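Next up, a chain.

===
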Amino acid sequence: MDNAGVGQSSAARNSAGLNSPGLGRGGSFAPALFLLFVAVLINYVDRGNLSVAAPLLKEEWHLSASVLGALFSAFFWTYTAMQFVGGWVFDRFDPCRVLALGFLVWSLATALTGLSTGFAMLLSLRLLLGVGESVICPTSSQILARYLPEESRGFANGIVCGAMRCGAVVGTFGGGLLMARYGWRPAFLGIGVLSLLWIPAWLRWRPHAEVIATTVPKGQTPAFAEILEQRSFWGVSAGHFCSNYLLYFMVTWLPFYLVREQHMTMTAMSRIAALYYLTDAASAFATGALADLWMRHGGTTTQVRKTAMGVGFALAAVSLGCLSLATPATYLYYLLLAGVGCGMTSATLFAFGQTLAGPLGVGRWIGLQNGFANFAGVIGPALTGFLVDRTGHFAAALVISAAVCVVGGLAWVLVVGRVEPIRWKSSVSLSDVSEAV
């Protein structure tokens, strides 16, 4: 598939940007992008709120750090497994509808968590949450790949990935204050129920399935085996694993780190953690926008994407290493610098697969990539809990996270090849895709 194979010339689509005609009832992709932002934000509020509640759960149910780590990881058991199963689904059915269904499942799981009567029920609901939330990355990537040109995807991906951090901001700050005042049960129940208001808005302003026939031409879709043969696939999967290790370390353990290591109250913890996540999100937004600007001024896709990854991982690795040795007077500076690096690595995380796989294969590619990458969620939180129990502090866990960042930078820069559409052997006609949708 060549670079021009998305139905119109690059120049025309560049001028259209987020206002490409026919993408929604208002003739603009902006409403859909805003709702994708909100969906991802809520997704990360719901997956991270257990971490915010961890100090309260530990006291109420007398849980050890190791047991908390197992609860944090449980979400990723089903979330990761569903990435491999879902890749087939995401390329065969309307991703907008799949996203709405997943949203319904994870919102109900969040609400029911507030009614948990014990560890077994809480564990079961975390597993169900993982099933529902597993749709978010493959479906959002498929929607962006189908409806936006390459030179507009940096900003859009930055918005979507920045929403992950904004979700952590809202969940940590807002959720932390709610839990401090009302307790963790009402917070889970209220967040889960109110989130359901997103679904009718999405059904109203989502991109419509019939548009696929006019925006995506006849093209090629890869078989699973073909994807697994690509060196670049393993490079992006390894790099994504490392990015997720850092992200999930912060999403699951940062609140507990601030309370235990820096001796903060719930209210103070909420403010500092929110500041970190806000820094991370701002970095993702800025990196995505600058990537698009650079490409429009002559930067190649390979040059732009790899530079962001290399610089981001280097900054994060150095900052985390320093954070492991930091004093109470200096830790915040290193924490925020790590947030800048983490945001840079996330801005175009899925843009690699969107380009390499093409619009018709991106759901399958991202499903596999995200599946392998989310083993970081299975391993990282549990390993951190074990290390904290064993050593009594977070220094070892921070050093390991820094080392993972070094590996991630090398994977993105050296293992991934040229970032350009792959010519797949197997192909499928557009009529087959439209029929399935």
